[in-house]
């Protein structure tokens, strides 16, 4: 299976044989890959009916739900990892959802577009308008993204919420790590990938 590079990074952080929940799992690509290569078990949560059908066709356990309604049907810590890719910025209460992820999982993994990237800063500073970038391609009035943040914003939220960051990868739109994103991640990184747990 040809895996998107960001999902490949995430799969390298997952322990073989673990239980994984994928929030906003899309068509189930990540869970299917983890099941085939690492022997994981778990569930995907998804709202879109077409994606749910694709998950079922791929043999992925999926539950239809709206992440804005929370994940209260799960109790304790039944999952080793709770993953959410490219959805943190699109939910109503990202702080609450991060806490929910760590209520039902031992570790969390999220990815999101970095609003602090140079191209976004330049458009705000010199264009005077909300940025439209490779990782944020929508206009302000039709974007699904309602809570944009920078790497610094996310890390401050983690500190304030008692969340310990275990790993961070900062990549470009093609999910490659370059010298610039290593030296100045908040300025030159387009997409952030974080692994974290409760302190």
What this model shows, in words?
The chain has 199 residues and is an alpha/beta fold. It has a single domain, classed as Rossmann fold (3-Layer(aba) Sandwich). Helix content is 34%, strand content 24%. The chain contains 8 helices and 7 strands, in the order αβαβαββαβααβααβ. It has helices at 5-13, 29-38, 49-57, 94-104, 118-127, 151-160, 179-183, 185-188, and strands spanning 19-23, 41-46, 62-64, 79-85, 105-113, 163-171, 191-198. Strands 3-2-1-4-5-7-6 form a 7-stranded mixed sheet, with helices on both faces. Strand 2, helix 3 (49-57) and strand 3 form a beta-alpha-beta unit. The longest helix is centred in the middle third of the chain and has 11 residues, at 94-104. It is globular. The mean pLDDT is 92.
List the helices and strands and how they pair.
Elements: H1 5-13, E1 19-23, H2 29-38, E2 41-46, H3 49-57, E3 62-64, E4 79-85, H4 94-104, E5 105-113, H5 118-127, H6 151-160, E6 163-171, H7 179-183, H8 185-188, E7 191-198
Parallel strand pairs: 1-2, 1-4, 2-3, 4-5
Antiparallel strand pairs: 5-7, 6-7
